[in-house]
Amino acid sequence: MKYKNIREGEQLHFDLHFLNRIKKQFPGIKAISPEITGPYSQVMNKAKSGLFKIIGINENYMGIKILKINEDGRYFNKGDDENTRNVTIIGENVSTTLFNNQKALGKSINIAGIDFKVIGVLKNDDIFSASEINSVYVPFSSYINCIDNKTPLRAFCLYLNKEVDSKRFENELRAFIANKYQFAYSDKQALQIINFETQTSAFEGLFDGLKMFIWIVGIWFLISGIVGVSNIMFVVIKERSSEIGIRKAVGATPKSILVLMLTESVIITVISGIIGLISGAAILEIINWLLESARHATMIKHAEIDINVAVLA
Description:
The chain has 313 residues and is an alpha+beta fold. 49% of the residues lie in helices and 16% in strands. It contains eleven helices and nine strands. Strands 3-4-8-5-7-6 form a six-stranded mixed β-barrel. A two-stranded antiparallel ribbon has the order 1-9. The protein is elongated and about 100 Å long. The protein starts with 15 loop residues before the first helix and ends with a helix. The relative contact order is 0.11.
């Protein structure tokens, strides 16, 4: 969309000075980080190499994106960026490709002809880190000075204080940037803002609907099971009518016969339930083994069921 002196199709370019202005303009921002990414680049470790995404960030990025590293590593700190240290945090697939099953921490990888020391390897145990297995992170200043000083800064991420209304902030931020870069506020293509809270709410609504659907299906299964067991007990009692007649003939009371039948039913139900729980646990273990084997190809990492729900059922 053409607006004032902005050409159609022109991309917005940011800089650290502008990010600092945003931080001062909006006191509700708790942390902010640049995010600069160029084309996939070759990363090497001796004879092994691969094409990976190189990303320049600051010390706030990992916390904003909720990315976790293995316990023996560390995150970037402010000194890494200020002193242009050649350190890196790599994704799980990068570690596997370049180091096989060896420990990557403390070793060096070569990016654009410069060695970077690995200080951390990202975990791959949740939805946030699953898409980062092919990423190589370096301090923002190291990216600009050592890897690529031609790629413009087109993206940044930030984290708000809890009391800030994210939707209202999104509108205010869009208006502020639109005023600075002179594009129409209504032009959604000029500036893309991904509101994680909005996305999370949508996912929560989806999972709440799935949970309700599963409960409804489960309740109907229980009802059908109750009807099935009742029919079976009716047939069993009818087939044992001669036995019941003999018991009554030798002095058994209707109450004792009822207690006998109910006791048999409870014992059979409990034994069947225990067998079902054990079988379900075994199936879940098999599913988890399959998920572990295909951890790079799926975002589902672990299957489980609440034991209280299982016992209640």
